[in-house]
């Protein structure tokens, strides 16, 4: 929660400290709220419910708010959650299912969005580039009684397009890459395997979402 409060402060400073156009954004509207889905194939590790394979996909579900600074730039604050499984590769059990561990986590961050000088682009509508940073707290095992814990600071780069329909309804799609800087509480096999699983979950994701342009 402390990291979330710090991100809110940074967003507020950015919103009121940067110069804004007299008529910022699409139809002069600044704020929008969104639901996002980030997904990537689970080729070498299982998802939370399925084994690995070409038709298995991991997912991150989350929400974000976007504040338009001017016609080409905006600031955003987001929170996402994920759950998946990974294969530990160690242990004395001959049952493969007993070597799988659950991994839960929450990603909280902010992003600076740059809309390109493309015909029809007026923030928050059009093609964009995202530059972001976030903090992750994750646990291995049960949420209430975690076996291991790990945390990470992440750098994000995203490319996409956002469209506004009817003056309010918004659709978005794109791709996001992230580089996690992991902090491990110990060097146990489970923690190391969990960190590798988490990194693979974050590296490249396809993103789709919808939102509502408020005021």
Report on the architecture of this protein.
It comes from Catalinimonas alkaloidigena. Residues 1-22 form the signal peptide. Keywords: Signal. This is Outer membrane protein beta-barrel domain-containing protein. The chain has 215 residues and is mainly β. The protein has a single domain, classed as Porin, CATH 2.40.160. The protein is 14% helix and 54% strand. The protein contains two helices and eight strands; from the N terminus they run αβββββββαβ. It has helices spanning 2-17, 189-202, and strands at 31-41, 57-68, 73-87, 100-115, 126-141, 146-165, 169-184, 204-213. The protein has an eight-stranded antiparallel beta barrel. A hairpin with a 4-residue loop joins strand 5 and strand 6. The longest helix is centred in the first third of the chain and has 16 residues, at 2-17. Mean pLDDT is 84; it is low at 11-23.
Q: From the alpha-carbon coordinates, what is the Rg to the nearest angstrom?
A: 19 Å
Please state the second-level CATH architecture.
Beta Barrel
- Please give the alpha-carbon distance between the first and last residues: 27 Å
Give the mean pLDDT.
Answer: 84
Spatial order of the strands forming the largest sheet = 1-2-3-4-5-6-7-8
How would you classify the helix and strand content by structural class? mainly beta
Tell me the number of strands.
8
Q: What string gives the helices and strands in order?
A: HEEEEEEEHE
Return residue spans where pLDDT drops below 50 for at least 5 consecutive residues.
11-23
Give the domain tally: 1
**Quick one: overall form?**
elongated
CATH class value: Mainly Beta
Q: How many helices does DSSP assign?
A: 2
What is the fold-level CATH name, i.e. the topology? Porin
Q: What percentage of the residues does DSSP assign to strands (E)?
A: over 45%
Helix content: 10-25%
Major beta sheet summary: 8 strands, antiparallel, barrel
């Amino acid at each position: 929660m402390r990291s979330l409060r710090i991100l809110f402060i940074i967003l507020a400073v950015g919103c009121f400290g940067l110069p804004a156009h007299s008529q910022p954004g699409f139809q002069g509207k600044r704020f929008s709220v969104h639901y996002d889905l980030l997904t990537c194939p689970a080729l070498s590790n299982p998802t939370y419910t399925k084994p690995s394979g070409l038709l298995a996909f991991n997912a991150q579900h989350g929400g974000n708010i976007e504040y338009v600074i001017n016609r080409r730039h905006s600031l955003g604050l987001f929170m996402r959650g994920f759950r998946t499984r990974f294969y530990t590769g160690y242990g004395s059990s001959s049952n493969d299912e007993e070597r799988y561990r659950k991994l839960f986590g929450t990603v909280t961050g902010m992003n600076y969005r740059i809309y390109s000088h493309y015909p029809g682009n007026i923030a928050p509508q059009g093609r964009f580039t995202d530059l972001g940073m976030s903090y992750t707290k994750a646990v291995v095992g049960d949420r209430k009684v975690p076996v291991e814990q790990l945390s990470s600071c992440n750098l994000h780069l995203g490319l996409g397009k956002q469209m506004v329909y009817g003056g309010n309804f918004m659709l978005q799609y794109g791709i996001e890459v992230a580089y996690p800087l992991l902090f491990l509480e110990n060097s146990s096999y489970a923690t190391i395997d969990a960190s590798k699983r988490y990194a693979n979950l974050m590296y490249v994701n396809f993103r789709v979402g919808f939102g509502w342009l408020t005021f």
